[in-house]
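User: Could you go from structure to sequence for me? I need the amino acid at each position, not a summary. Structure tokens:
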């Protein structure tokens, strides 16, 4: 084919048909330009297919991560609700001494000295450049705000952890026996719910506690201390606020998962899998 065009061009030149040669040359240039444009378009299509495949891989990975994050957050929410419920119960025991027993007080005390922090999977899509592959502007915005949303929840959780470690637990050590509280928590398998992976090693065998303290404890005396009521108020207030923040974050995770499902479904509609 190239030999044909070359010979045609030479024949036109030798026959001094310049106008026809000019038209031929223009046509040849146009053919070359069209070929280049077609090649560029094909290359663009290929790049788009690659980027769409990468986007779908990222979306599916994010769906897995946020599903795990949601499950973890739900565990933390339940833990906070247990603490808040026990704090309210202890307030009722302060106000109505007739309704309490030693074991009941110890059980609820054990739940008020716990803390839980949300430690989710975080994919830094912005710094890696992968965020640009996601076509949904709404999804990109929510993912870009994800890190700051986590920090808001963690700050409240760490605030309670600091207070618990530096004020509440030292107060109980000074005025009560933590061994008895911890033993009852182990007997009820309560502490295992705070393990990262309770189904694997490190699990405290249910019913195998550490034994109760031989030192006499008096829950009535503890509940009469004015400072105990103040510490209990801090436990309830700090965890109530952290719980509210966690519920807000839960809604955001649910929204992200809904957008991920929508984007994955849209791509399946655009490119349905061939029938086997």
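Assistant: Here is the amino acid at each position, in order:
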């Amino acid at each position: 084919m190239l030999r044909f065009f070359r010979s045609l061009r030479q024949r036109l030149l030798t026959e001094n048909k310049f106008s026809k040669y000019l038209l031929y040359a223009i046509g040849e240039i146009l053919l070359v330009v069209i070929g280049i444009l077609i090649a560029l378009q094909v290359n663009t299509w290929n790049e788009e297919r690659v980027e769409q495949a990468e986007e779908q891989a990222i979306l599916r990975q994010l769906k897995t991560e946020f599903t795990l994050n949601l499950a973890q957050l739900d565990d933390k929410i339940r833990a906070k609700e247990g603490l808040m419920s026990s704090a309210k119960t202890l307030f009722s025991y302060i106000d109505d001494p007739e309704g309490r027993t030693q074991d009941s007080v110890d059980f609820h005390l054990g739940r008020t000295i716990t803390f839980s922090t949300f430690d989710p999977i975080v994919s830094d899509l912005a710094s890696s450049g992968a965020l640009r592959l996601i076509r949904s502007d709404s999804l990109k915005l929510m993912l870009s705000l994800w890190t700051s949303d986590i920090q808001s929840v963690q700050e409240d959780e760490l605030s309670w952890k600091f207070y618990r470690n530096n004020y509440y637990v030292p107060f109980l050590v000074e005025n009560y026996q933590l061994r008895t509280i911890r033993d009852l928590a182990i007997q009820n398998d309560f502490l295992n719910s705070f393990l990262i992976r309770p189904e694997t090693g490190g699990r405290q065998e249910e019913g195998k506690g550490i034994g109760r303290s031989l030192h006499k404890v008096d829950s009535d005396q503890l509940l009469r201390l004015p400072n105990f009521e103040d510490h209990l108020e801090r436990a309830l207030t700090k965890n109530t606020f952290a719980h509210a923040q966690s519920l807000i974050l839960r809604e955001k995770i649910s929204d992200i998962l809904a957008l991920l499902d929508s984007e994955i479904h849209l791509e399946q509609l655009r490119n349905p899998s061939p029938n086997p």
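One structural detail worth keeping in mind: The radius of gyration is 34 Å.
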